[in-house]
């Protein structure tokens, strides 16, 4: 095998103290046992607002430095670090049958890269590359529902309507007989959720839910989730808070209602799926589900790659109402 080249390509780097810049990153990402390689030119990437804001602001706990590593991360926390995992590129080098095809890869924001072929999910012809940036978020939503184990007819509340919360609610609503309500005080979410066929509410009083999934990233959202749970209900915590200490009201009726509070994280498959499902299977499912054009409603902003340092600074401040912000590389 030929040694990796020293070729570089422009990439976005977070310095870990609330700043970022575009600087060179290596094109080659292979090892001695990588097997066949694909080279891709990025056409779109997207920002995972919650996680990337924590990385950008240097808020990844030291205890999580290894578990938080992205598949093709370069650099170490707190920074400088090239971090990201929502990238769609066009194959420019590899098997002739794949040349010109689009593929999704858990790769950071970078113009060009070369990775093992098994790290790229080639998109079916009916999946637009601009929509495919949602694949990682949809994979997270799938995993959260696997952990929640919803049943036909369940009454389900999803607290927090960022991209992942919207996707969880959209998936849950496709289960026969379910009553799904997406809860978020932001009234701007109502129109997006309507396009996904999901009922929105700024708040709820019912405490009859069989399953409550929390995705807001705010401690107050967890309190809301606990309050919506019915007797013997399941609360799935999908938010990740970094170094923030999160209080939870486990007094009162928490024990008498025999509630179950469980974490969900996309880095591990549900044990019930492991005998039959691989990570690659889960990604393939996410990509198949993206055939629905309704998901385009979640792309609420787009910028050129060169604008990424300013865009990331704005999103990390939390002031923007953006859901998925897409980066274009044309």
Describe the protein's architecture and organization.
With 330 residues, this protein is α/β, with parallel strands linked by helices. The chain is built from seven helices and 17 strands. The strands form four sheets. Strands 3, 6, 7, 8, 9, 16 and 17 form a seven-stranded mixed sheet that branches. Strands 12-11-10-13-14-15 form a six-stranded parallel sheet, with helices on both faces. The chain has a two-stranded antiparallel ribbon with strand order 1-2. The radius of gyration is 20 Å and the shape is globular. The mean pLDDT is 94.
SSE topology:
Elements: E1 8-14, E2 20-26, E3 37-47, H1 49-56, E4 74-75, E5 81-82, E6 87-93, E7 102-105, E8 112-116, E9 120-122, H2 135-148, E10 155-159, H3 163-172, E11 179-183, H4 189-195, E12 199-201, E13 209-214, H5 219-228, E14 229-237, E15 260-263, H6 279-289, E16 299-304, H7 308-316, E17 324-328
Parallel strand pairs: 10-11, 10-13, 11-12, 13-14, 14-15, 16-17
Antiparallel strand pairs: 1-2, 3-6, 3-8, 3-17, 4-5, 6-7, 7-9
Helix pairs in contact: 1-7, 2-3, 2-6
